[in-house]
Amino acid sequence: QVQLVQSGAEVKKPGASVKVSCKASGYIFTTYYIHWVRQGPGQSLEWMGWINPANGNTRYSQKFQGRVTITRDTSASTGYMELNSLRSEDTALYYCARERVVAGGELLDPWGQGTLVTVSS
Amino acid sequence: DIQMTQSPSSLSASVGDRVTITCRASQSIRTSLNWYQQKPGKAPKFLIYAASSLQSGVPSRFTGSGSGTDFTLTISSLQPEDFATYYCQQSYSTPKTFGQGTKLEIK
């Protein structure tokens, strides 16, 4: 079955960087975009960006532009999200999700299990 | 950016009740509206796409409707497994913004 499995929890100091991985299985990795979404403690979902695994093209939310880099390794069927210059407000669960194009738009399904990133001095 | 506003932010109801959650977009998004369900400690799960189309396997007690800027998610007869937080998301334009969520609790 289609599955996205993310890397484990991370604890980082302010100013550091974090790189989260998302390994896909059960489908051809290059045929579906991968999105990254985060969720702060007790908060809603915040879309960060996507990557087209076929060619590496990316699109980022303006909020994270310049601080986030989304990449992929097609040989490993794995996507990555790197966030730099971490601050305490970046403490959150980070999710990857596969995009499915449907009539009228696109949806995110399935999602990875989430990776908790804690930023603390 | 398109802002998505859900109401109410929380809702208390009983098993068997009919409940409706509203989602409003700050500009027209046609029918590019998805609904997700999230249970504590779990990733969101996709329920409805294009405002009213049910994901395969989602019970028919869930219905979505609306177009333009106003959308609703209705659960016709609440079951114990439906108590969760529900999010709307617009897929019309980037960034793909989400509503702030509606937490459905047992009365």
Gross geometry of chain B: globular
Outline the low-pLDDT stretches of chain B: none
Percent helix range of chain A: under 10%
DSSP helical segment count of chain B: 0
Q: Helical percent range of chain B?
A: under 10%
Order of helices and strands of chain B: EEEEEEEEEE
Beta-strand content estimate of chain A: over 45%
Oligomer: heterodimer
Largest sheet of chain B: 6 strands, mixed
Catalogue the unreliable spans of chain A: none
- Strand adjacency order, main sheet of chain B: 2-10-9-4-5-6
Q: How large a portion of the residues of chain B is in β-strands, by DSSP E?
A: over 45%
Query: What is the structural class of chain B?
Result: mainly beta
Class by SSE composition of chain A:
mainly beta
Sketch the major β-sheet of chain A: 7 strands, mixed
- Total strand segments of chain B: 10
Question: What descriptors fit this protein?
Answer:
heterodimer; A: 121 residues; mainly beta; 7-stranded mixed beta sheet; 4-stranded antiparallel beta sheet; 11 strands; globular; B: 107 residues
Characterization of the model:
- The complex is a heterodimer of chains A (121) and B (107).
- Chain A has 121 residues and is mainly β.
- Helices cover 0% and strands 55% of the residues of chain A.
- Chain A contains no helices and 11 strands.
- Chain A has strands at 3-6, 10-12, 18-25, 34-39, 45-51, 58-60, 68-73, 78-83, 92-102, 105-111, 115-119.
- In chain A, the strands form 2 sheets. In chain A, strands 2, 4, 5, 6, 9, 10 and 11 form a 7-stranded mixed beta sheet that branches. In chain A, strands 1-3-8-7 form a 4-stranded antiparallel beta sheet, with no helix packed on it.
- The radius of gyration of chain A is 14 Å and the shape is globular.
- Chain A starts with a strand and ends with a strand.
- The relative contact order of chain A is 0.31.
- The mean pLDDT of chain A is 96.
- Chain B is built from no helices and 10 strands.
- In chain B, the strands form 2 sheets. A 6-stranded mixed beta sheet of chain B has the order 2-10-9-4-5-6, with no helix packed on it.
- By secondary structure, chain B is mainly beta.
- The N and C termini of chain B lie far apart (36 Å).
- Chain B has strands spanning 4-7, 10-13, 19-25, 33-38, 45-49, 53-54, 62-67, 70-75, 85-90, 102-106.
- Helix content of chain B is 0%, strand content 48%.
- In chain B, strand 4 and strand 5 form a beta hairpin.
- Classes of the chains: A mainly beta (121), B mainly beta (107).
- At the A-B interface, strand 5, strand 9 and strand 10 of A face strand 4 and strand 5 of B.
